[in-house]
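re: the backbone from monday

yeah here it is again, tokenized this time
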């Protein structure tokens, strides 16, 4: 659905050194996946979206969207994608309805009235359809911009910071809407600084800083960086139990932390019952057991730090 091979964008600035915004991006995103594109400000995320939607031309490399080649089939690319930019750029003096109708006509939507009405209802804006977009709150503008991106029923949707600056209620509505779109089988390319949001919504994430550093599911990245660790919360902890647990096959390490036993292992589903039997047999009172889960923020920061250290070492 989205395929890139060596995609690169270099900006030439007069009387200054060239700036490589995107370098050698090779990526494959299948139909129906929500892909999170994470990186710091200035990393090249928006430039990547602009190339993939045929708004700017790449310096080198290739990209195909819905089977259309960027730089060759640009009109078809633009017709087959929807895009929500960080700054929606609505016609503020025109009504919400008129804003959507203009773009529906540009996309040659067959029944403009039906399609505009559909998305105004879906995003809770129907009662405000005749009011100028300039009078809307930021959350309402964002919802109107999402409706605009979906009017022509694109198979691929690019979302750049869709919940940035929204109040919690509006942000939750937008997230729920994105989850609904995933259920329809649309492919979504999501740029966000909200890592909790990315963890919740994305099937895979790419960590990016002009070049792709890591691509995987959040769970696989957690396991790759930290392994799986289970915490056994005990009424009291006998230090001898640490060595007993450490001796079990499949246990990587075990540590005592206050009255908790923290155990690193590859397969908690298999080993947890063995450890519980061992501890209970040794006289332990187990209050509860839970897996230690690192946040996507931890993963992102750790990955970026390791990448920077590698660059310095090189």
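seq for it, each position gets an aa:
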């Amino acid at each position: 659905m989205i395929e890139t091979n060596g995609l690169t964008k270099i900006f030439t600035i007069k009387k200054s050194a060239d700036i490589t915004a995107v370098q050698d991006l090779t990526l494959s995103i299948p139909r129906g996946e929500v892909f999170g594109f994470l990186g710091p400000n200035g990393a090249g995320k928006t430039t990547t979206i602009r190339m993939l939607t045929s708004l700017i031309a790449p310096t080198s490399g290739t990209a195909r969207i819905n089977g259309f080649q960027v730089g060759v089939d640009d009109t078809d690319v633009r017709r087959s994608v929807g895009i929500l930019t960080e700054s929606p750029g609505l016609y503020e003096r025109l009504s919400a309805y008129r804003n959507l109708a203009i773009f529906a006509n540009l996309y040659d939507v067959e029944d403009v009235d039906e399609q505009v009405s559909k998305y105004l209802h879906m995003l809770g804006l129907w009662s405000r359809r005749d009011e100028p977009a300039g009078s809307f709150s930021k959350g309402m503008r964002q919802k109107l911009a999402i409706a605009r991106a979906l009017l022509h029923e694109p198979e691929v949707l690019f979302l750049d910071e869709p919940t940035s600056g929204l109040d919690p209620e509006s942000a939750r509505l937008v997230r729920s809407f994105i989850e609904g779109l995933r259920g329809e089988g649309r492919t979504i390319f999501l740029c966000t600084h909200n890592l909790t949001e990315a963890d919740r919504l994305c099937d895979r994430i790419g960590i990016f800083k002009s070049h792709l550093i890591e691509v995987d599911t959040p769970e696989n990245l957690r396991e790759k960086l930290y392994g799986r660790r289970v915490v056994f919360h005990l009424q009291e902890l006998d230090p001898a139990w640490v060595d007993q647990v450490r001796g079990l096959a499949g246990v990587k390490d075990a540590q005592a932390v206050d009255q908790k036993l923290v155990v690193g292992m590859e397969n908690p589903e298999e080993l947890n019952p063995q450890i519980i039997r061992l501890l209970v047999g040794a006289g332990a009172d187990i209050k509860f057991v839970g897996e230690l889960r690192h946040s996507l923020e931890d993963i992102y920061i750790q990955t970026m730090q390791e990448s920077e250290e590698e660059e310095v070492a090189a």
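The CA atoms of residues 54 and 137 lie 30 Å apart. The two ends are 35 Å apart (CA to CA).
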